[in-house]
Amino acid sequence: MLEVLRVNGALRPSIMSKQLGISRTQLSKALRVLKDLQLVEQTSDDNDGRVQATRLSAQGTAFMERAAKQRHGTAQLVASVMTAGKQAIFAELCHKAIRGLQTEIGEHD
Length: 109
Fold this sequence. Notes:
Residues 1-99 form the HTH marR-type domain. The structure is a single chain. The protein has helices spanning 2-8, 13-20, 24-36, 58-80, 84-107; strands at 40-44, 52-56. By secondary structure, the protein is mainly alpha-helical. Helices cover 69% and strands 9% of the residues. The two termini are 17 Å apart. Helix 2 packs across helix 3 (24-36). The protein is built from five helices and two strands. A two-stranded antiparallel ribbon has the order 1-2. The chain has a single domain (2-79), classed as Arc Repressor Mutant, subunit A (Orthogonal Bundle), CATH 1.10.10.
C-alpha cells in the first residue's frame, strides 16, 4: 500500500483498492492503521471535495526511503554471494514469479 502511494502519489480510495486488488472495506481498515502510525495523510481530493485522497506523509516518505536503502543493501549482499550464472537464474525465477502473481491478480479483477 505504501509503495503504491510512493509510486503514484495521492490516490482516491477507489483507485487504490483496484490497484491492490482488495475491497474498499479492507482498504479503509488498513488506511486507518497507517494513518494512526502517521505514515499516510488524507485530504480532500482536488477534483471532488467529497472524496478523500490519500498520500504518504513526511514520516511515511522517510520510512519508504529507509526501506529502499535496506532493500538495496540486501540486493548487494545477495549479489555478492552469487556467481553471474546464479544471478541470472535467480532473476529468471523472480520474473517468472512476478508473471504468475500478475496473472493471479488479473484473474480476480
